[in-house]
């Protein structure tokens, strides 16, 4: 244990490395600590704060959308602005909120979980974070450019993007930078996992969260550059006379879609695989039973990742593909239900004959499994090409992806915050408040998004600022739910997150969860600034430190 | 509001009532999927909730020790695999049927414009008919007002519906002029993207007379929500009568581009055209909005030399669509004359179709 | 952790102390994207912002890399770090491969699908006069569906691209000779062959510049020459840019060699640059075959 107790206990965050003799190792204080950070925990915190801010921004945009759709007719915004809201909501949520949040988790937890002192490239790690700031400024700032923010949907389909104003270029450059950030972040994660594990931490003993991130990182470095290619072509089409997506010069708008979705589909799994990882940590901890089928979990994750490269055109059934294309992409997509099912069943088997308690992290994890599966089933329904012809580009798809993204990714993130929050801050959250947050979110989430299935089946197209009368009631219901859901997140921020960050609350024990396993529970709470400066000696299961 | 036959019903829960074989099949597939998914859902979460209630610590449950079983893991890989295949099989048949656009009785080209649909009857009874179908301007105004009131066909009413005969195989060829749109009619089970520069096709064979509605289903810019589709399905006799009437109208309208018009005629015609085509962006009072420039007082509009304005109207620029394929010479002459004399632009200038012809030739 | 190690001992893990470089480099990139975005939309000041951002960024990078080099030469990098560098360079190159894959994909899609489709019978409805042949200058073809593209000639493999192929292949050989020399401890020979390699890279770029000039002025082949021009210039352009970056890497490695950096056992800086150079080489062979020959 000496490894972590180098530092006087109680010297949690940020100060007291006075015995460091190396001149630039006095941990700086104040703003420098954050801006110049090379510590994986500090950078993780930065990521988490950034992504929560973006969740708020994206959420406010969502509430603008829902306010406009509360009733038929245009009450607040003109349709152009509405499209900007939709586009920016999608972009900000995907690239600003969900992805950085998972990177934040990776930063905090992976070195702790595998017994490494830090990420492999600490400065590059900070660079990955700080790149997000200019990108976010450009994205949000684009609302104030002439013509307003990009309004072509988060998918940025050509040729509509070719008609957009200058903010489109700002958006494209912002995405380039975010892509660079993701690639550097992924390389860092891959190298950390492959090369920085403590002796005895073999790959097949590694915690599931690290595994899912390893696979996610591979997805990222494979597809982010492809997105960069697609938007670069958009840029040159816009300004330098090329005709990639202009038929008059021999180009093809549908080619954009192929390139985009080659990125886009793996992207949605990028947003769910780490979520699977978090849930795979939490369920065993609260079932007091080892994760069932560890090896098959790893293989299932890898299968999902591999399959994700050959299903992209299921977003394009309505573009008019040849029969063989439709059939191929339909079959391949439906296959993904198999490995995903394996994961669901393994979680069930983990709970089966366990000894369960239902603290807040477990509630979110169970909520995740339950509601994500509904989203998975609607995904399967979308994957049936003939049905998709009816529901493509309708609110059914909006319902599908919010079930997997909000009730999937976001729920798992909340689960993780409650589970590891005590380790990060050294403070226990209030169980009552956590439960209020969970139940409130669960109910309002379903009130918001369940009616969208009906709207979509009845034929209400997405990205619509106004809609026929017959859709009014479900839209009103969805809007009410959305505001409720939003308020639950404000509640979370004010009454759970802020107190924890300010250190208000019961002191967290080193291991708050009786049956939690893993090296992160072998260090004090809050985790000291430096951990595992020399590699720990592990027991045979690689979950405990024995020297 | 009331249900809209052929369109959405109030608080409708499932797909719209099908009127084609394909839409029926889709409905069947969807219901099958619902039943299967629901069954799996109940089975899976039945087990989970059973476990949650029985195997909780507060009930004294002590955790077992197993964490692996190759047998069950293989089982729950194979069984879902089989289920998925069983789901995909009936879908395969429908995909093949859906894509078979051969042997159609009538072929119609649907062209997406920002933000209206152009229909051209290419083959079969009605060949040669062509018109543009736009959202009723009063509905657009209702939307802007913020209080549309209880209108059953709100946002679905068009000036010229597409008319087709019942029980005939109609092949729709889609394409677009500017950006991607999508032509969708839920009751027919049809949705096909309209891609600029390329043609795609789809088909339907409506089995019931009536009015059917759909909307543009691909984000196409600011008026995306305002380019509905209305298909009128008539019996053979009524259809023939409609075709007759249309063809007579074409003959009557066939205007001679060398004809010289009076100011009053041009203004009257121009105002109609302006309101249905240009006012979405430039506004009925010609004041424009945001990035859409005002025409009232515009130097280009008031210029003595008509070439620049004609060029712009014909070929478009940025968000301004090109009108050369949509409007005829006389129509462009009328609408340009209108802008030159409406509001405060009292220039007194007249643009004749001949000038448009000349500009087109450049 | 370096902090707990006295100077001169190689730490098990190396974790650098707080650093202002990352945030400052990001600050530079803010001006780069802001400036670029404004400049291409006709705001002159954007060019200055872009330039400022680039200079700032380059300046920070030299400081950053300088620090890393000092750490490396100071013996702070253990074998473990060496392995980390290997993994990271490998996967970085993989991500570059995927970037090129997007553009190769665009080329295959347009040749294999869009051009034939635009010229097909169905599409005659829209483009009656377009014969879908690739390249669109082959006999009987029209340059573009809408006839908006001026006539142009394509760039054949002979002579410049072939010369360039020879240059790059040779540079691969000289680089390998340099590497062997370094391992054998023959520093003067290493440096000599490194300069040769850099020079070959620069010559390549010179030829490519000439090729572009030739394309624009004699073949009328431009960025706006339809889909052919688009894929041609973006593929070869991005490749050329990568040659430029690789050349810079090799140049700095050479300068470091001249300063006495690297040992015959440990020189991943050298190897990483060499890997990159070989990657650029392989991409070129792909280009040579699919862009110029086929
Ligand atoms: C986290 C993100 C995420 C995840 C995990 C998924 C998961 C899946 N998605 Fe989803 N999807 C999106 C995010 C996501 N999706 C987004 C953002 C869009 C819209 C993009 C846009 O257009 O803007 C989209 C759109 C989308 C479409 C296109 C719809 C359209 O535009 O018309 C399709 C079509 O096939 C699809 C399918 C699927 C499938 C089959 C899965 C599968 O992975 C689901 C698998 C899971 C299960 C099936 C449930 C659990 C399994 C069992 C309990 C086993 C037993 C089950 C059986 C045997 C059936 N998705
Ligand atoms: C990635 C994750 C993600 C998340 C978390 C969300 C969250 C939400 N989304 Fe999201 N959404 C997308 C991804 C996401 N969305 C994507 C990719 C699209 C497609 C875009 C496109 O078509 O291009 C989309 C599109 C989309 C649409 C369709 C728009 C359209 O087609 O026009 C709608 C409509 O209801 C919607 C609603 C919501 C709501 C209500 C939430 C809620 O969960 C949000 C909850 C709210 C908060 C978390 C904010 C809390 C803060 C406050 C309430 C602050 C209040 C402040 C004051 C009072 C001062 N989204
Ligand atoms: Cu046309 Cu949407
Ligand atoms: Cu997908």
UniProtKB/TrEMBL annotation, chain A:
GO terms for biological process: electron transport coupled proton transport; oxidative phosphorylation; respiratory electron transport chain. It is found in: Cell membrane; Membrane. PROSITE patterns: COX1, COX1_CUB. The keyword Protease does not apply. It is a multi-pass membrane protein. Its EC number is 7.1.1.9. Keywords: Cell membrane, Copper, Electron transport, Heme, Iron, Membrane, Metal-binding, Respiratory chain, Translocase, Transmembrane, Transmembrane helix, Transport. It is an enzyme of class 7 (translocase). The chain crosses the membrane at residues 46-69, 89-108, 129-152, 172-196, 208-235, 255-279, 291-315, 327-349, 361-387, 399-420, 436-456, 476-498. Coiled coil: none annotated. Residues 25-539 form the Cytochrome oxidase subunit I profile domain. GO terms for molecular function: cytochrome-c oxidase activity; heme binding; metal ion binding. It catalyses: 4 Fe(II)-[cytochrome c] + O2 + 8 H(+)(in) = 4 Fe(III)-[cytochrome c] + 2 H2O + 4 H(+)(out). It comes from the Bacteria. PANTHER family: CYTOCHROME C OXIDASE SUBUNIT 1. Cytochrome c oxidase is the component of the respiratory chain that catalyzes the reduction of oxygen to water. Subunits 1-3 form the functional core of the enzyme complex. CO I is the catalytic subunit of the enzyme. Electrons originating in cytochrome c are transferred via the copper A center of subunit 2 and heme A of subunit 1 to the bimetallic center formed by heme A3 and copper B. Belongs to the heme-copper respiratory oxidase family. This is Cytochrome c oxidase subunit 1. It comes from Roseateles aquatilis.
Automatic annotation (TrEMBL), chain C:
Coiled coil: none annotated. It is found in: Cell membrane; Membrane. The keyword Membrane applies. It is a multi-pass membrane protein. InterPro entries: Cyt_c/ubiquinol_Oxase_su3 (IPR024791), Cyt_c_oxase_su3_dom (IPR033945), Cyt_c_oxidase-like_su3 (IPR000298), Cyt_c_oxidase_su3-like_sf (IPR035973), Cyt_c_oxidase_su3_a-hlx (IPR013833). The keyword Transit peptide does not apply. Residues 9-294 form the Heme-copper oxidase subunit III family profile domain. GO terms for cellular component: plasma membrane. GO terms for biological process: aerobic electron transport chain. It comes from the Bacteria. One of its GO terms (molecular function) is cytochrome-c oxidase activity. Keywords: Membrane, Translocase, Transmembrane, Transmembrane helix. Pfam families: COX3. Its EC number is 7.1.1.9. The chain crosses the membrane at residues 21-40, 46-66, 87-109, 158-178, 190-207, 227-253, 274-293. Belongs to the cytochrome c oxidase subunit 3 family. This is cytochrome-c oxidase. It comes from Roseateles aquatilis. The lineage of its organism: Bacteria, Pseudomonadati, Pseudomonadota, Betaproteobacteria, Burkholderiales.
